[in-house]
Amino acid sequence: QRRSLEQYGEECKTKTYPPSGPTFKGNVPTYIINLDLPPSKRWDELMRDKKTELKTVVQNIKDIANTFFPSGKIVDIVDHKISHLTETLPYPFNEELQGIANSSGVPLGEIVIFNIFYEIFTV
Amino acid sequence: CTSIVAEDKTGKLYHARNLDFGLFLGWDVKNNSWTLTRELKPTVVNLDFQRNNKTVFRSTNFAGYIGMVSGVKPDLFTLTMNERFSLDGGYVGIFEWFLGRRDGMWMGFLTRAVLENATSYQDAKDKLAKTRLLAPAYFILGGKNSGEGCVITRSRTAALDIWDLDIKKGTWYVLETNYDRWKPPLILDNRRTPAMKCLNQTTQENISLPTIYDVLSTKPVLNKLTVCTTLMEVYNGHTETYLRECPDPCSPW
């Protein structure tokens, strides 16, 4: 298996910048996050533009959870119980998460899970 | 992930990373790619956090995620975070949090707080090294002065190792993937050796953001999990982010 993975290695690339060609998939848009706004409003503009993409990612994670727990109980717990975790999170993050849930239409529990995915995933 | 802080012969510092994410979270047979990795790409954004119409810091984020995994505080420091796997992992911290022990920081919130509030490279280094965490992590930090660059290997409670740039001893770059530097990487996931080989071939004389982009574009440093490449310079908080694709043949991680 190691040998089969080593076949993916290649000689050090040169002159790949500026990015182009088959390994370049596109540029990234820039948004301003105004820290003078109330935390619940800071992410509104970004969510207005990206809520569909965010919903796709969250749905994918839910689909994986449902694959392992077909009863749907895990997603049910996330939607109805995990949202209470927000109350224990420090300011301003708790209010920012609530704001993202409001402006994206994604349930708060799912937004919280997306934001603590690192801690869950390090297992 | 692969993060690099490098210093050129003039003392200028560069910081760059490949953000790899989505391992085992669905394989799309039709497109020969990780499903979550593919779906995350359209959510990648550069953010400019401002107060009084002035930039406080910049970051590269997934839309909907309020923590930080890559960011720059102009003229002070650059920061990336790489995932560190451990049996004493984040689930332990989460369990403790539910039980009421809440003196640890969530990783993304710590990096966000550091980018927002730290007043110097040393201040950022201290906060990243000493704050109790819910999950282990690697913090890769760059400054603006010669020798200011390090990899902080964190357990949930302590800094296990701080690896600093040391130009006099020939350490002109520090590099972190997802393994402790004093241990060999997982035999099936060795991105460290090819990345170091390419950096050594590049040499300190020729190091720059374009040549670091070359390193991060070399398979398997670039792999099927790579969502984007971010290039940063601390001076004026310069940031560039590019979405990536790894055409076949390409390592799955």
Mean pLDDT of chain A: 91
The span between the termini of chain B is 9 Å
Query: How far from one another are the termini of chain A?
Result: 24 Å
Shape of chain A: extended
Q: How many alpha or pi helices of chain A?
A: 6
Beta strand count of chain A: 2
In what range is the share of β-strand residues of chain A? 5-15%
Largest inter-chain interface?
A: A-B, 64 and 78 residues
- Along the chain, the helix and strand elements of chain A come as HEEHHHHH
Give the C-alpha Rg of chain A: 19 Å
Q: Structural class, from secondary structure content of chain A? A: mainly alpha
Structural overview:
The complex is a heterodimer of chains A (123) and B (253). With 123 residues, chain A is mainly α. Chain A contains 6 helices and 2 strands. Chain A has helices spanning 2-6, 44-68, 73-80, 93-104, 108-115, 117-121; strands at residues 24-27, 30-34. Chain A is extended and about 50 Å long. The relative contact order of chain A is 0.13. Chain B has 253 residues and is an alpha+beta fold. Chain B has 6 helices and 14 strands. Chain B has helices at residues 35-40, 90-98, 107-117, 121-130, 192-202, 209-216, and strands at residues 2-7, 13-20, 27-28, 33-34, 44-51, 54-62, 70-73, 77-83, 137-142, 149-154, 159-164, 173-176, 226-233, 238-244. Chain B is globular and about 45 Å long. The chains are: A mainly alpha (123), B alpha+beta (253). At the A-B interface, strand 1, strand 2, helix 2, helix 4 and helix 5 of A face helix 1, strand 5, strand 6, helix 2 and helix 3 of B.
Topology overview:
The complex is a heterodimer of chains A (123) and B (253).
Chain A: H1 2-6, E1 24-27, E2 30-34, H2 44-68, H3 73-80, H4 93-104, H5 108-115, H6 117-121
Helix pairs in contact in A: 2-4, 3-5, 4-5
Chain B: E1 2-7, E2 13-20, E3 27-28, E4 33-34, H1 35-40, E5 44-51, E6 54-62, E7 70-73, E8 77-83, H2 90-98, H3 107-117, H4 121-130, E9 137-142, E10 149-154, E11 159-164, E12 173-176, H5 192-202, H6 209-216, E13 226-233, E14 238-244
Antiparallel strand pairs in B: 1-2, 1-12, 2-13, 3-4, 5-6, 6-7, 7-8, 8-9, 9-10, 10-11, 13-14
